[in-house]
Design brief:
Elements lengths: L9 E4 L2 E4 L19 E2 L2 E2 L9 H10 L1 H7 L1 E4 L9 H14 L4 E6 L3 H5 L4 H4 L5 E5 L5 H8 L6 H14 L3 E8 L8 H10 L3 E6 L6
Parallel strand pairs: 2-5, 5-6, 6-7, 7-8, 8-9
Antiparallel strand pairs: 1-2, 3-4
Bound molecules: iron/sulfur cluster.
Iron/sulfur cluster binds next to loops.
Length: 212
Amino acid sequence: MDTLSKENLLYFLDNKPYINMTNACTNSCVFCVRNQKEDVQGAKLWLDKDNTTSSDVITQIEENIKKVLTAGEIVFCGYGEPLIKINEVIEICKYLKEKYPSLKIRINTNGHANAIHKRNVAPELAPYIDIISISLNAENEEKYNLVSKPKIDNAYEEVKRFIRACVEEKIYTIASIVDKVPNYPVNKERCEVIAKSLGAKFRSRDFIENGY
Ligand code: SF4
C-alpha cells in the first residue's frame, strides 16, 4: 500500500502499524523526522490535503486489518501532532475498541492537547487508549524551548500538567526524551526524576540520524 503518491494515513514500520493524522504540530523539534526526510520506509507521510476524517483512517485500517491485528498494537504517530485532531482520534479509537477489543491503542503526543483545546481531554481519551507516550523532551523550560521550539505559551508546564492529567485518569503514561541529539544534550537522570514525580514511567530513546 505504501507509495509516494497517496495520502498515507496508515503506514508500517517493522510490521507495526502507525496512524498519520496530520502535518500540523505546535512544536518544531530539532530532531523531528520530518525535518530530515519526506518518507518513512517508502511511505510518504506529508499529507497534501491534510483534511483527514476518521472514516478515511478507518478505511485504510480495514484495508490492512489482518496485518494490524497481527501486530497487536496500533500507534498514533506521524508527521504531526495527532491530538490536534482530538475528535477524529476519539472516533477512531472508539471504533477500534468496539470492533477489535484486543487491539492495543497507543498515542504518541507532544503533550499540548489541553492547551490547544482549552479543556482537559485526558478523561475523553481514557476509556479508549492503553498507553500514552508524552514528549517531556527536557529537564527544564529553557532547554525544552531550545529543543522543541514550541509555538504555544508555557509549553513545558503544559506538558507536565498533561502528563499528570493522564496519570490521574489511570492511563499507562510514559514521559519520553530523545537522548544524544547533536548539540542538544539533555539531563537524562533529571528527566527521569521529573517523570516519576509526575507519576509516569520514563523512556529514553537515542537519536538516530535520518531515522525514526
Ligand atoms: S512534537 Fe513530534 S511531530 Fe511535532 S515537531 Fe516534535 S517530533 Fe515533530
